[in-house]
Amino acid sequence: MSLLNNPPGNMTVHAMEEMDEDNLDILDVEQAVLTGEILRFEKGDARGTKYVVEGLVANHRAPVAVVGRFTTNGRYLIMAVYEKSDSEE
């Protein structure tokens, strides 16, 4: 079973557009979340804490950052996905 289990329900349109811009697919994002580590927490949003996770995509070509939060029903909602550049490391 996929971690993201029915991606449109667990990913914003914005995140899907960013995935497309960076030529990433759902398996890349899933791999990054499952094998990555939390870089930071972003608190202060009334909707809940955001978690920035960095991990490698499925073919290990580049690090990817995945920004998301847990919803009230415990699901991880991915709000942004982007390939990290050398200048961000």
Structure commentary:
With 89 residues, the protein is of the alpha+beta class. It has one domain (7-88). Helices cover 26% and strands 33% of the residues. The protein has 3 helices and 4 strands. It has helices at 7-10, 13-21, 26-35, and strands spanning 37-42, 50-56, 63-70, 76-83. Strands 1-2-3-4 form a 4-stranded antiparallel β-sheet. Strand 1 (37-42) and strand 2 (50-56) form a beta hairpin. The longest helix is centred in the middle third of the chain and has 10 residues, at 26-35. It is globular and about 35 Å long. The model has no long low-confidence stretch (mean pLDDT 84).
Task: Name the average pLDDT.
Answer: 84
Shape: globular
Tell me the number of strands: 4
Number of helices: 3
Q: Rg to the nearest angstrom?
A: 12 Å
Low-confidence stretches: none
Helix content: 25-40%
Protein structure class = alpha+beta
**Number of discrete domains:** 1
Major sheet? 4 strands, antiparallel
Distance between the termini: 32 Å
Beta-strand content estimate: 25-35%
Reading the helices and strands in chain order gives HHHEEEE
Strand arrangement within the widest β-sheet reads: 1-2-3-4
Keywords:
globular, 89 residues, alpha+beta
Task: Summarize this structure briefly.
The chain is globular, with a radius of gyration of 12 Å.
How do the helices and strands line up, and which of them pair or pack?
Blueprint lengths: L6 H4 L2 H9 L4 H10 L1 E6 L7 E7 L6 E8 L5 E8 L6
Antiparallel strand pairs: 1-2, 2-3, 3-4
